[in-house]
Amino acid sequence: MLDNTHRIIAGVVLLTVIGIAYGGTFLLRVARGRAPANDLQKSFFRAGHAHAGVLVILGLLVMVLVQSNDVGEPWATLSTGVLIAAIFVPAGFFLSVASRDPQQPNGLVALIWIGLAVLAVGLLAGGIGLIAAGVG
């Protein structure tokens, strides 16, 4: 099903879920008032955490679908954008409000938009590649 390279990628990505789960404990501290955060930070921390979990699972699903259906190039490579987005989008949410009591996100909010663009390319490539593999 997966070649050795993609097995390793999948294994590493699965291990990152431990970090995402640990991040949930930080959100619990914020929610209980044990970690200082203003309303903007709370919203961005929640969004970053949620996007990390969803995009990691979606990225693994796309990888398995693409690999198990022999999707050709460049579609297979471009579809890895979903996993790359799983880094950029959450990083943008967290890093753009990482200062003490920010009133608005800093310039690193651009990482969210970059990640969303990479996500769109990855999903488009995966979808086109799967359709092409099915038609061919």
From TrEMBL:
Q: Which UniProt keywords apply?
A: Membrane, Transmembrane, Transmembrane helix
Give TM segment ranges.
Answer: 6-31, 43-66, 78-98, 110-135
Superkingdom of this protein's organism: Bacteria
The organism encoding this protein is Paractinoplanes pyxinae
Q: What is this protein called?
A: Integral membrane protein
